[in-house]
Protein backbone atom coordinates (compact mmCIF):
# COMPACT_ATOMS: atom_id res chain seq x y z
CA UNK A 1 0.00 0.00 0.00
CA UNK A 2 1.09 3.52 -0.72
CA UNK A 3 -0.31 6.83 0.45
CA UNK A 4 -0.57 8.75 -2.82
CA UNK A 5 -1.73 12.09 -1.39
CA UNK A 6 -2.97 13.75 1.76
CA UNK A 7 -5.37 16.66 2.27
CA UNK A 8 -6.06 18.77 5.34
CA UNK A 9 -9.36 20.26 4.17
CA UNK A 10 -12.38 19.24 2.15
CA UNK A 11 -11.44 21.63 -0.65
CA UNK A 12 -7.94 20.13 -0.91
CA UNK A 13 -9.42 16.62 -0.95
CA UNK A 14 -11.84 17.48 -3.77
CA UNK A 15 -9.05 19.18 -5.73
CA UNK A 16 -6.81 16.09 -5.40
CA UNK A 17 -9.61 13.70 -6.36
CA UNK A 18 -10.32 15.75 -9.49
CA UNK A 19 -6.66 15.92 -10.54
CA UNK A 20 -5.40 12.40 -9.75
CA UNK A 21 -6.52 8.79 -9.89
CA UNK A 22 -6.82 6.84 -6.64
CA UNK A 23 -7.76 3.25 -5.79
CA UNK A 24 -9.50 4.31 -2.58
CA UNK A 25 -10.11 7.46 -0.52
CA UNK A 26 -9.91 7.48 3.28
CA UNK A 27 -12.10 10.33 4.41
CA UNK A 28 -12.57 11.74 7.90
CA UNK A 29 -16.16 12.51 8.84
CA UNK A 30 -15.05 15.68 10.69
CA UNK A 31 -13.18 18.14 8.49
CA UNK A 32 -12.32 21.75 9.31
CA UNK A 33 -14.15 23.37 6.39
CA UNK A 34 -16.95 20.96 5.47
CA UNK A 35 -18.67 17.82 6.73
CA UNK A 36 -17.08 14.59 5.52
CA UNK A 37 -20.58 13.42 4.58
CA UNK A 38 -20.92 16.38 2.19
CA UNK A 39 -17.49 15.60 0.70
CA UNK A 40 -18.50 11.95 0.31
CA UNK A 41 -21.62 12.96 -1.60
CA UNK A 42 -19.61 15.29 -3.84
CA UNK A 43 -17.08 12.52 -4.57
CA UNK A 44 -19.93 10.15 -5.42
CA UNK A 45 -21.45 12.73 -7.80
CA UNK A 46 -18.15 13.33 -9.60
CA UNK A 47 -16.57 9.86 -9.41
CA UNK A 48 -19.30 7.37 -8.48
CA UNK A 49 -16.99 4.35 -8.91
CA UNK A 50 -14.28 5.67 -6.55
CA UNK A 51 -14.52 3.75 -3.25
CA UNK A 52 -14.53 5.83 -0.07
CA UNK A 53 -13.76 4.50 3.40
CA UNK A 54 -15.07 6.83 6.10
CA UNK A 55 -13.11 7.27 9.32
CA UNK A 56 -14.72 8.63 12.46
CA UNK A 57 -14.08 9.00 16.16
CA UNK A 58 -17.76 8.20 16.70
CA UNK A 59 -19.08 4.67 17.30
CA UNK A 60 -20.72 2.81 14.43
CA UNK A 61 -24.15 3.14 16.00
CA UNK A 62 -24.07 6.91 15.46
CA UNK A 63 -23.22 7.27 11.79
CA UNK A 64 -22.33 4.02 10.03
CA UNK A 65 -25.71 3.13 8.54
CA UNK A 66 -26.32 6.67 7.32
CA UNK A 67 -22.79 6.89 5.86
CA UNK A 68 -23.19 3.59 4.00
CA UNK A 69 -26.54 4.77 2.62
CA UNK A 70 -24.78 7.94 1.40
CA UNK A 71 -22.44 5.88 -0.77
CA UNK A 72 -19.44 5.03 1.40
CA UNK A 73 -17.80 1.65 0.85
CA UNK A 74 -17.10 1.23 4.54
CA UNK A 75 -16.92 2.85 7.97
CA UNK A 76 -14.11 2.43 10.50
CA UNK A 77 -13.63 4.07 13.87
CA UNK A 78 -10.32 5.90 14.28
CA UNK A 79 -9.65 3.87 17.43
CA UNK A 80 -9.82 0.64 15.43
CA UNK A 81 -6.75 -1.54 15.30
CA UNK A 82 -4.43 -1.02 12.35
CA UNK A 83 -5.25 -4.57 11.23
CA UNK A 84 -8.95 -3.66 10.96
CA UNK A 85 -8.11 -0.59 8.87
CA UNK A 86 -5.87 -2.63 6.54
CA UNK A 87 -8.56 -5.32 6.31
CA UNK A 88 -11.17 -2.66 5.44
CA UNK A 89 -8.95 -1.15 2.73
CA UNK A 90 -8.15 -4.57 1.21
CA UNK A 91 -11.82 -5.58 1.24
CA UNK A 92 -12.89 -2.37 -0.49
CA UNK A 93 -10.09 -2.39 -3.08
CA UNK A 94 -11.19 -5.93 -4.02
CA UNK A 95 -14.60 -4.48 -4.88
CA UNK A 96 -16.62 -5.27 -1.77
CA UNK A 97 -18.16 -3.14 0.95
CA UNK A 98 -16.49 -3.29 4.35
CA UNK A 99 -18.97 -3.88 7.12
CA UNK A 100 -17.72 -4.54 10.65
CA UNK A 101 -19.60 -7.05 12.82
CA UNK A 102 -21.13 -4.15 14.80
CA UNK A 103 -22.41 -2.48 11.61
CA UNK A 104 -23.68 -5.82 10.28
CA UNK A 105 -25.70 -6.15 13.47
CA UNK A 106 -27.14 -2.66 13.00
CA UNK A 107 -28.04 -3.41 9.37
CA UNK A 108 -29.67 -6.76 10.11
CA UNK A 109 -31.50 -5.83 13.30
CA UNK A 110 -35.17 -6.80 13.25
CA UNK A 111 -36.97 -3.58 12.31
CA UNK A 112 -40.03 -4.49 14.38
CA UNK A 113 -38.05 -4.79 17.61
CA UNK A 114 -35.54 -2.06 16.76
CA UNK A 115 -38.07 0.72 16.16
CA UNK A 116 -38.66 1.27 19.84
CA UNK A 117 -34.91 1.40 20.59
CA UNK A 118 -33.78 3.08 17.39
CA UNK A 119 -32.81 6.76 17.72
CA UNK A 120 -35.22 9.06 15.92
CA UNK A 121 -32.58 10.39 13.51
CA UNK A 122 -31.95 6.89 12.10
CA UNK A 123 -35.47 6.85 10.66
CA UNK A 124 -34.69 9.77 8.36
CA UNK A 125 -33.82 9.39 4.69
CA UNK A 126 -30.33 10.43 3.61
CA UNK A 127 -31.51 13.88 2.44
CA UNK A 128 -33.69 14.39 5.51
CA UNK A 129 -30.71 13.53 7.70
CA UNK A 130 -28.55 15.99 5.78
CA UNK A 131 -31.08 18.78 6.40
CA UNK A 132 -31.54 17.67 10.03
CA UNK A 133 -27.75 17.73 10.59
CA UNK A 134 -27.40 21.26 9.21
CA UNK A 135 -30.40 22.48 11.22
CA UNK A 136 -28.86 20.83 14.28
CA UNK A 137 -25.74 22.93 13.73
CA UNK A 138 -27.93 26.04 13.83
CA UNK A 139 -27.91 26.78 10.10
CA UNK A 140 -30.93 28.52 8.63
CA UNK A 141 -33.10 27.24 5.79
CA UNK A 142 -31.80 29.87 3.34
CA UNK A 143 -28.14 29.03 4.04
CA UNK A 144 -28.85 25.30 3.73
CA UNK A 145 -30.64 25.89 0.42
CA UNK A 146 -27.62 27.81 -0.91
CA UNK A 147 -25.12 25.16 0.27
CA UNK A 148 -27.08 22.25 -1.20
CA UNK A 149 -28.22 24.05 -4.36
CA UNK A 150 -31.87 23.53 -3.46
CA UNK A 151 -34.75 25.97 -3.29
CA UNK A 152 -35.73 27.39 0.08
CA UNK A 153 -39.16 25.79 -0.40
CA UNK A 154 -37.59 22.33 -0.90
CA UNK A 155 -35.45 22.68 2.23
CA UNK A 156 -38.51 23.88 4.15
CA UNK A 157 -40.41 20.79 2.98
CA UNK A 158 -37.59 18.52 4.19
CA UNK A 159 -37.49 20.46 7.48
CA UNK A 160 -41.24 19.85 7.91
CA UNK A 161 -40.78 16.12 7.25
CA UNK A 162 -37.94 15.95 9.77
CA UNK A 163 -40.02 17.75 12.41
CA UNK A 164 -42.97 15.45 11.75
CA UNK A 165 -40.97 12.19 11.76
CA UNK A 166 -39.10 13.18 14.90
CA UNK A 167 -42.22 14.54 16.62
CA UNK A 168 -40.69 17.99 17.12
CA UNK A 169 -42.08 21.48 16.71
CA UNK A 170 -39.16 23.78 15.89
CA UNK A 171 -35.43 24.13 15.15
CA UNK A 172 -34.64 24.50 18.84
CA UNK A 173 -35.97 20.97 19.38
CA UNK A 174 -33.70 19.71 16.58
CA UNK A 175 -30.64 21.49 18.01
CA UNK A 176 -31.38 20.20 21.51
CA UNK A 177 -31.81 16.64 20.21
CA UNK A 178 -28.61 16.83 18.13
CA UNK A 179 -26.62 18.04 21.14
CA UNK A 180 -28.19 15.49 23.46
CA UNK A 181 -27.38 12.65 21.00
CA UNK A 182 -23.82 14.00 20.43
CA UNK A 183 -24.49 14.27 16.69
CA UNK A 184 -22.74 17.59 16.25
CA UNK A 185 -19.17 18.47 17.17
UniProtKB/TrEMBL annotation:
Record keywords, A-Z: DNA-binding, Phosphoprotein
4-aspartylphosphate, modified sites: 28
Pfam families per UniProt: GerE (PF00196), Response_reg (PF00072)
Entry annotated with the keyword Transport: no
Domain Response regulatory residues, every copy: 1-93
Residues of the HTH luxR-type domain: 117-182
Annotated InterPro entries: CheY-like_superfamily (IPR011006), NreC/VraR/RcsB-like_REC (IPR058245), Sig_transdc_resp-reg_C-effctor (IPR016032), Sig_transdc_resp-reg_receiver (IPR001789), Tscrpt_reg_LuxR_C (IPR000792), WalR-like (IPR039420)
Residues in coiled coil: none
Record's protein name: Two component transcriptional regulator, LuxR family
Source organism: Noviherbaspirillum suwonense
Amino acid sequence: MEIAAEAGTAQEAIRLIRSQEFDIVLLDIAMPDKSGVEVLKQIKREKPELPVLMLSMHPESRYAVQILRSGASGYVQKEALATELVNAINTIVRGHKYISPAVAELLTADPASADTEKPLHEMLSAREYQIFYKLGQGEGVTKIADELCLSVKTVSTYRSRVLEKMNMTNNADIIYYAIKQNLID
